Amino acid sequence: MTPIAVIGAGSWGTALALVLARNGSPTRLWDINESLVASLKKDRCNLAYDIPEKFPDSLEVFESLESLLADVQDVLIVVPSHVFVRVCQTIQPLLPANVRLAWATKGFAPTPPYFLDYFVGEIFSKDTPMALLCGPSFAKEVAAEQPTAINLTGNNEAFIESLLKRFVCRNFRLQRRADLVGIQLCTVTKNILAIAAGICDGLGYAANTRSAMLAKGLQETQRLILAVGGKADTILSLAGVGDTILTCTDNQSRNRRFGLALGRGGHIVQAKKDIGQAVEGYDNVKQLQEIANQHQLILPIFNGMYRYFYADLSLEKLADIFISV
Ligand SMILES: NC(=O)c1ccc[n+]([C@@H]2O[C@H](COP(=O)([O-])OP(=O)(O)OC[C@H]3O[C@@H](n4cnc5c(N)ncnc54)[C@H](O)[C@@H]3O)[C@@H](O)[C@H]2O)c1
């Protein structure tokens, strides 16, 4: 098997590299953080991100991007969404024309039209084989080989097949789904709903309120998926309802923890600082509102979150929107 290069050795990049390497794929791993790379090489595990599982011999840590990408056709990007486009621009000159590009990054790029596949098409080519892995998956659980199933979507059959061969094992399953645009949208909405769920719980509301908010949020997500050209049943997928349940109900989710802090009276800046990693849901609220406006959609939950962050809507009024019918 040819090597696959994983860019980004945070929680999720490390967990996915572990799955690949345990399955026998020659796996290369690199991160822009040089001290992180040094510790990965020394410890052969990722203590900085609380992943103590030892790297198999088939997982090699690289110190430079040039050596990482030498003679590589398949790349997996696992960096936060706000740097995704920059990473694509940096690696493009180092890769062959027949590169195949997968990503497990969730969320939007900071500039329109926000969808990551658009930028991959612009920076590489519209014909570049692309794939996205997305679904209910906390990195630490995957690293610890807890049974996990997520979606795999993309634009190229041969690339999808080869990713299935590399990844799938007893405790890590990939369900194919033909809706690259719809699934990308779900990676954004589930994080915003997780903040909303955290706010609900932080305010002291009980399960009834959170569940009503979630059901309405999923209905709004389905309307958005259809508006951007996705498929209606994508909302029922692992990446749709599956990832939304995960992120909204478990405190491993940094978006949910951010919402909890806000609901308990915390300040946005301090709450973000306390999380210490990117809170992608917060970053994406404005872009989602723009997309809703473009399609003339009225989406009370997502609009409420937008007005809470950017237009002085009080938490009390936001909570009222959560249960309004
Ligand atoms: N953590 C999870 O459980 C999980 C699960 C599924 C999906 N995701 C998604 O995966 C993406 C990454 O999340 P994470 O949890 O691994 O984040 P993280 O904060 O744990 O790690 C991100 C890593 O990316 C590196 N990085 C930043 N800029 C870079 C650049 N220009 N080049 C190379 N590396 C760079 C950072 O140094 C860091 O090590 C996010 O979009 C997230 O939503 C995370």
CATH homologous superfamily placement of the largest domain: NAD(P)-binding Rossmann-like Domain
- The radius of gyration computed from the alpha-carbon positions, rounded to a whole number of angstroms, is 19 Å
Q: Which structural class do the helices and strands define?
A: alpha/beta
CATH topology of the largest domain: Rossmann fold
**Largest sheet: spatial strand order:** 3-2-1-4-5-6-7-8
Order of helices and strands: EHEHEHEHEHEHEHEHHHHHHHH
The number of distinct helices, counting runs of at least 4 residues, comes to: 15
Q: What's the CATH C level of the largest domain?
A: Alpha Beta
Mean pLDDT: 97
Ions, cofactors and other ligands present here are: nicotinamide-adenine-dinucleotide
User: How many discrete domains?
Assistant: 2
Assembly state here? Answer: single chain
The fraction of residues in strands falls at 5-15%
How many strands appear in the DSSP assignment? 8
**Poorly predicted spans:** none
Large-scale geometry: globular
Termini, distance in Å? 54 Å
The CATH architecture of the largest domain is 3-Layer(aba) Sandwich
Q: Can you give the helix content as a percent range?
A: 40-55%
Summarize the main sheet: 8 strands, mixed
Q: What is the topology?
A:
Elements lengths: L3 E4 L3 H12 L4 E4 L3 H10 L15 E3 L3 H5 L4 E4 L3 H11 L8 E4 L12 H8 L6 E5 L4 H5 L4 E7 L2 H11 L4 E5 L3 H24 L3 H21 L10 H12 L4 H10 L4 H8 L4 H15 L5 H11 L4 H9 L2
Parallel strand pairs: 1-2, 1-4, 2-3, 4-5, 5-6, 7-8
Antiparallel strand pairs: 6-7
The structure holds nicotinamide-adenine-dinucleotide (NAD).
Nicotinamide-adenine-dinucleotide binds next to helix 1 and helix 4.
